[in-house]
Write a structure and sequence with these properties.
It is built from 16 helices and ten strands. It has about 350 residues and is α/β, with parallel strands linked by helices. Helix 5 packs parallel to helix 6 and helix 7 crosses helix 9.
């Protein structure tokens, strides 16, 4: 068993049995969903593909109120794209029909700057999605919003901090907002206590890099036991994304490149990912932006899920004959850590 105090060996520090909390909240339906989710993780041995995604990730708008040095900020300077409420409602009507169990809100941008973010989140919850996961930088997480998230029984919230001191936070994220975000987190913790609620489960993320590695232990000590779990994550190099996007979907097989150490990736076997311009990709990473397989504003999610492009990507992962996008993504990751990450494609660590 890993020693929680030896930060250099930590990937995830848990203080709460998240799965048990959500099982208590949502009952047998949640348990059944997790059984199917685990089956999807073993796609390479059991051939399981659910009839509809188990998780849908949604980017509301391709903008952010911070400028983080480890992020693919090109996404925030592209032509502005915004999913309309009607787009989201249409998707969620289909998701209600297929009883979608999980949804991730956020992806590559800050969801809470979207006008109507609360309406969109309520639409997702009203469609019957249990495991709603909100990813945010926490800047806009005010009391009214905290109360809303608790009231709506949003299952999980991830706040990315990456620092224990204001100086380091500003260096990494571009603005001096750490104290504000920490206060917002205290407000959320108190809102849960006031409502006697276990939800949302609170996850903090710390992307380890040269400028903050010396603050890992201080970060752990600051938040130990005050949130439900803490993730220390490796930084991913997105320098190749622009070139891959220029190639497009059809710049396919990477036969001229040495195979990566592992070709395992469960995302295309359990999830779809919708960007703010309607593009649908088989994974939520920025690399995925170069692998567009459909348009959610013009096609049904079921059509994309069952489509030829998604089938082709799955076949490549099974055979090891990868397209260049998947090849670069998988080659950029540590095998052990990426295998762990793909065991949590719905963003649970």
């Amino acid at each position: 068993m890993r020693d929680r105090d030896k930060v250099e060996h930590i990937q995830s520090v848990k203080y709460t049995d998240v799965e048990q909390v959500l099982t208590n909240e949502f009952g047998d339906r949640f348990s059944d969903y997790r059984v199917n989710y685990r089956k999807s993780l073993n796609y390479d041995t059991n051939g399981y593909i659910p009839p509809f995604p188990l998780t849908l990730s949604i980017e509301f708008v391709n903008r952010c109120n911070l400028s983080c040095q480890m992020c693919y900020t090109v996404n925030h300077s592209d032509k502005k794209a915004t999913l309309s409420i009607s787009d989201i409602e249409n998707m969620m009507q289909e998701c209600a029909e297929y009883k979608l169990p999980a949804a991730v809100v956020g992806m590559g941008s800050e969801a809470l700057i979207y006008k109507g973010a609360q309406d969109a989140i309520k639409t997702i919850r009203d469609s019957g999605v249990m495991d709603v996961f909100l990813g945010t930088n926490g800047v806009l997480l005010n009391k009214q919003l905290c109360d809303f998230l608790v009231e709506q029984r949003v299952a999980r919230i991830e706040v990315s901090l990456d620092a224990a001191t204001p100086e380091t936070f500003k260096k990494i994220r571009g603005k001096d907002e750490l104290l504000r975000i920490e206060a917002n987190l205290e407000t959320l913790i108190q809102a849960k206590k006031d409502a006697n609620s276990k939800l949302p489960v609170i996850r903090l993320c710390f992307c380890v890099q040269e400028d903050n590695i010396m603050e890992q232990k201080a970060f752990l000590e600051k938040w130990r036991g005050r949130v439900d779990y803490i993730d220390f994550q490796e930084m991913v190099d997105f320098n190749d994304v622009d070139d891959l996007r220029d190639m497009g979907y059809d710049a396919f097989l990477a036969d001229d490149l040495p195979p990566p150490e592992s070709t395992y990736c469960a995302y295309p076997f359990n999830s779809l990912h919708v960007w703010s311009n309607g593009d649908v990709t088989p994974c939520c990473t920025f690399f995925g932006k170069a692998l567009v397989i459909g348009d959610a504003t013009k096609q049904s999610l079921k059509e994309i899920w069952d489509g030829d492009k998604m089938a082709e990507i799955r076949d490549q992962l099974l055979t090891g004959r990868l397209n260049k996008v998947c090849h670069v993504c998988l080659s950029s990751r540590d095998k052990e850590n990426f295998a762990t990450a793909t065991e949590t494609a719905d963003m649970e660590s």
